[in-house]
Amino acid sequence: MINIEIDGKKLSVEPGEMIIEVADKAGIAIPRFCYHKKLSIAANCRMCLVEVENAPKPLPACATPVGEGMKVYTQSEKTIEAQKSVMEFLLINHPLDCPICDQGGECELQDVAMGYGEGVSRFTEGKRTVKDKDIGPLIATELTRCIHCTRCVRFGEEVAGIQELGAVQRGEHMKIATYIEGSVDSELSGNVIDLCPVGALTSKPFRFSARAWEMQQRPTIAPHDGVGSHLYLHVMGNQVKRVVPREAEAINETWIADRDRYSYESLHHADRVTKPLVKQEGVWKETDWSQALEVVAKQLNIIAKNDGADQIGCLASPSATLEEHYLLQKWLRALGCQNIDHRLRKTDFRVKEQAPQSAALPCEFTDVEYYDRFLLIGSYLRKDIPMLNHRVRKAVMLGAEVSVLNPVDYDFNFDVAHALISDVRLLSTQLAGILKALSANAPLFSTLPDYLRQVSPDPAQQAVADSLKAGEKVMLFLGSLALHHPEAGLLKALAEGIAKETSGELAFLHEGANAVGARLAGAMPHVGAAGSALPTPGLDAAAMTHAPRKAYVLHQIEPEWDCAYSAQTLQALEQAEFVVALNTFQSDTMLDYADVILPAAAFTETSGTYVNLAGHWQSFEGAVVPQGEARPAWKILRVLANLHDVEGFDYTASTEVRDELKQQVEESAAQSHEVAGQTDTSSLKSYSASRDNTQQGLVRLTETPLYRTDAFVRRSPALQQTTDNQRTGVRVSRQVAEQYKLDPAHPVTLQQGDYSVSLPWQVDEALPGNHVWTAGVAGLGAPFGAIELTQGKVS
Amino acid sequence: MTAIPTNQVCFRTLGHDAPSSLATYESLGGYQVWRRILKEKTPPEEIVEVLKLSMLRGRGGAGFPTGLKWSFVPRTSPGQKYVVCNSDESEPGTFKDRDIMRYNPHQMIEGMAIAGYVMGATVGYNYMRGEFIEPFESCERALKDARESGLLGDNILGSGIDFDMHNHLGAGAYICGEETALLESLEGKKGMPRFKPPFPANYGLYGRPTNVNNTESYASVPIILEKGGQWFLDLGKPNNGGMKIFSVSGHVNKPGNYEVPLGTPFKDLLAMAGGVRDGNRLKAVIPGGSSVPVLPADIILKTDMDYDSLDKAGSMLGAGSVIVMDETTCMVKVLARIAHFYFEESCGQCTPCREGTGWLSRVIHRIEAGEGKLEYLDLLGDVSNKIMGRTICALGDAAAMPVISFIKHFREEFAYHIEHKKCLVENRS
Ligand SMILES: Cc1cc2nc3c(=O)[nH]c(=O)nc-3n(C[C@H](O)[C@H](O)[C@H](O)COP(=O)(O)O)c2cc1C
Ligand code: SF4
Ligand code: FES
């Protein structure tokens, strides 16, 4: 520690820190534009110039390291004069269009100008203007206002990991532009809006809709993935006008993904259900709550009585709150129904998940940065969970090596050391090869089916094994593709085997905002809340589809998009006697299969808790009043249980629900995290039966695109227009296109069993042969199953 | 006037046949020092001591003692290090490095090789401005010859020492003469100066320790080591060792490069350059390139051409680029031209320079066009002072110093221009 003085205040500080960091910590304000604590130092704006004793000229506080005995004056005449001069320079070419600028009222330049600017300009020359560019649906540009701080450029280089914005030309002509004509497509792009100190980069959807001072800021948690980024909702009246990050170093630092920033747009979508709806003799009627709830209670009662509660099935979104998951299972289990699941896109349930687990990651998000070897198994982490990917990227910047095993050569924003791009049917073979390379006699092999026992590692698998072996801290990610894979259980066992051999740890990249919470709450058919044992296990999500039930309770899902077996689930719903959908939105499909639609409040309108992948219970409150007659789902469930005379449903606040579960979890001594080697390996041999060892036919490959993950995202217009969202539809490998002599001008027909769709298609060079890739396509069969492809003569 | 000695350092091959050839250079003692070092493995500290004694000061403009600079590179730190030669030579008025490379490239190469040896660097780059086609070809030829004679490459002459270097042509931006912008450019990035510290000695090319010197600085090294530090110091005067090439341009009868001892009186240099053209009266001189303060005739005529004397006279030696202006010169027009240059060449990253150079240039042009106001003169001084010392690199100072000095020494001429909306100088050239 060394001693310095700022404005006479004695401070003991770390050597090497910059004056501005020290001042910030001490609460001493130094104006700045280019400095940002999360970005590299550019020292280009010169706004932070301060007088330092014995320095002949004022020094930039952001780039001047403290030294023993240093005396800094932030309020001296010299400092003020220097800062005023810079302010004058910054304003000469800055338009005075504050009244029509979206940044007005929250503009760093405006703020500082109030303090340091002069009333009258001495600059009588013409001002510079810059032609604007369309950089996509999310960010509006007004580059004449740019003050060249290069925060946006550095963000792209240093954080997003893709350089989309740059400063072209020089001197006064320097301007921020996309290097190559085009849009800014990073999944983190919206952060440049917050970084831009002026109104040069603003939110396109938010533009001109409210003034900063008209809005109130309310905290919440992001509802789309297992990070649970901290957000502020900016609310005017009862409307969420925009969403910005709320700083949380351990969760999202100062950033948020675009998905979390723009999904608020869905809140006012025309599909919102604002009144309870009941179908009577095929005709939908708006009704009041008591009637609607009575219909639901009565119908479920009848089925439970006549056919058994086992004839009820419940599918819940993994992004529903902890409280909702808990109440759903508590209510239905009281009726005797165990068929509850939130793992909607999973297809292999042979190896039972151990529960309860209090986290899906072995560590905090921040700790991820300090692992030095990663193996990503079946994951497009960058688009699936952008803020977690950011941590891995930081680890790579520190020298970590990442290996990936994927059926598609995804575009990561960090260097991938070893990429195993494999036929999706052979993922387990690949992992077995890696395991063999690590240890030919790993005990796991004795439990594996023959086709895996016999593998011999190829050089690529050997390279991955060597890389992992050389690591000090190894982390294996089972991504959504691995978790949803038809051999998911096998992949998990193999990953555990590899973890064991490398002293590594496993992380499960479950989908949704509350996947860990759902597990803790007991929203699974084989364990109750807090891991409690059940008399008999119920049906999992796939089984509820394959063995149709007489009644379904759907919570915040759209099965055609959210369930693995899209078409089959719809069929099951249509044949059911009674379907109640708790949902924020309605759709034509829902109007077909449902009998009652209960308007559930949106994520901004309810209180609740999400437990993120790192195991943090993040509670939030409703920020706005529910639209129309929509009600927080936990309240709806409370009333339904009351109507069924279930005991213990007297909650007056959602926090009581949470605390009840919390106590159970604490008492159950929940495992901190699933420990490698605990998988029940007895069923692994049985995988031989389902294995197609020929790999001859075409296989379907699917993924949930970034902006199709849930009903909110799917209804957010700006996100729907992004380049990322164009990664949907049908793609085939070059090999398939040639083999089937496909005509690009005409659609192809895809068939899986009884289900078929016809759609336009494209070639994707990143796909291995024999693969047909469908994303955001409803109406087909098994996600990674055999598929037929034809291109009929066009009429 | 006693005859002034000339061409004893960087121009020593002039006057000989094929001055740029390896044979000529070697016949004059070239590469002797390099061979001796390779053979004897002279301790690097010894070399640095000789340079310190010689008081060779950086010829690129700032005049920083070269020996001292060489002692900054962490010689023994592991990993790649680099030596870089700054042959960007873009300052208006400067044209000496071009002639060193055309007529004596081997001496620069030998200097760089020695620097590489001292610093423990095995790779060198010679960064030339984009327009230097002829010097580039000359340097390429010289490199080829030196390599073929085994003077560069791996395990040079069996010494176990490696050093090779490459010539590189820039794309023609003045700012790439600033050493850190040069390094950025060399790395293939946009030429924009880095904030310092860290200095190139610690964090240079590709983040590795790097020594940057001007062409003339490197080319002075071999002969200093051959003839001794004292010999070089004695060529000039205390604290200002050696000869210096002055690029004399403007209103003289014999413009050109003159390598003369530091401390040579300006009037002698002017005489060598054939005096002021047409017998005109001398009006002013910019003694070190367009970025240094201008001096009126009465001051410069009493000043000697060395770092300290020019400093005392209120200007700088800079790169030794002597721009001579006679009585027909309109100072407003000259300043307008200079201001426009810095406005055009600002890299644009830091606020005072990006915004200030345009402001200065526009106001001066308005005065020139007869649209000025008297208060502009104070405004110009004020804006210049707000740029000075507050920018990332010294281009800001380079833009400001001419403005301040022109107005200081020729305020009346500017005032006349404003009041009468025309030039004080009749028949200006
Ligand atoms: C705007 C600007 C332009 C410069 N241009 C040159 C140049 O063309 N050649 C040069 O040698 N030094 C130039 N310099 C100085 C270099 O930054 C650096 O100080 C010099 O190359 C060091 O070499 P020396 O110590 O041998 O003089 C320039 C500096 C600035 C600020
Ligand atoms: S002073 Fe000018 S040239 Fe130097 S870094 Fe700043 S803007 Fe660029
Ligand atoms: S904040 Fe220090 S120079 Fe910009």
How would you sum up this structure, described in words?
The complex is a heterodimer of chains A (795) and B (429). With 795 residues, chain A is of the alpha/beta class. Chain A has a 7-stranded mixed β-sheet. In chain A, α8 links the parallel β15 and β16 (340-341). In chain A, α2 (77-92) packs across α3, α8 (322-335) packs across α23 and α12 (427-438) crosses α14 (459-469). The longest helix of chain A is centred in the middle third of the chain and has 19 residues, at 289-307. In chain B, 44% of the residues lie in helices and 13% in strands. In chain B, a hairpin with an 8-residue loop joins β8 and β9 (295-296). In chain B, α3 packs antiparallel against α4 (66-72) and α14 packs antiparallel against α15. The longest helix of chain B is centred in the C-terminal third of the chain and has 26 residues, at 395-420. Chain B is globular. The model of chain B has no long low-confidence stretch (mean pLDDT 96). The structure holds flavin mononucleotide, iron/sulfur cluster and FE2/S2 (inorganic) cluster (FES). Flavin mononucleotide is lined by residues 58-62, 64, 69, 86, 88-91, 175, 177-179, 212-214, 217, 393-395, 398 of chain B. FE2/S2 (inorganic) cluster is lined by residues 32-35, 43-48, 60, 62 of chain A.
Architecture blueprint of SSEs:
The complex is a heterodimer of chains A (795) and B (429).
Chain A: E1 2-6, E2 9-13, H1 19-25, E3 49-52, E4 59-60, E5 71-73, H2 77-92, H3 108-116, E6 139-141, H4 151-160, E7 165-168, E8 175-178, H5 191-195, E9 201-203, E10 216-221, E11 230-236, E12 239-245, H6 258-262, E13 277-280, E14 283-286, H7 289-307, E15 312-316, H8 322-335, E16 340-341, H9 365-368, E17 373-377, H10 381-384, H11 386-397, E18 401-406, E19 418-421, H12 427-438, H13 450-453, H14 459-469, E20 474-478, H15 480-483, H16 488-501, E21 505-508, H17 515-521, H18 541-546, E22 551-555, H19 559-562, H20 566-575, E23 578-583, H21 588-593, E24 596-599, E25 608-611, E26 617-620, H22 633-643, H23 654-668, E27 699-703, H24 711-714, H25 717-720, E28 729-732, H26 734-739, E29 748-752, E30 755-759, E31 761-763, E32 771-775, E33 788-790
Parallel strand pairs in A: 1-5, 15-16, 15-22, 17-18, 17-20, 18-19, 20-21, 22-23, 23-24, 27-32, 28-31
Antiparallel strand pairs in A: 1-2, 3-4, 3-5, 6-9, 7-8, 10-11, 11-12, 13-14, 13-24, 25-26, 28-32, 29-30, 29-33
Helix pairs in contact in A: 2-3, 7-22, 8-17, 8-22, 8-23, 12-14, 12-16
Chain B: H1 22-27, H2 32-40, H3 44-54, H4 66-72, E1 82-87, H5 96-103, H6 105-119, E2 123-128, H7 133-148, E3 164-169, H8 179-186, E4 210-214, H9 215-227, H10 229-235, E5 243-250, E6 256-261, E7 264-265, H11 266-272, E8 282-286, E9 295-296, H12 297-300, E10 304-305, H13 307-312, E11 321-326, H14 331-345, H15 351-368, H16 375-387, H17 395-420
Parallel strand pairs in B: 1-2, 1-4, 2-3, 5-11
Antiparallel strand pairs in B: 5-6, 7-10, 8-9, 8-11
The complex binds flavin mononucleotide, iron/sulfur cluster and FE2/S2 (inorganic) cluster.
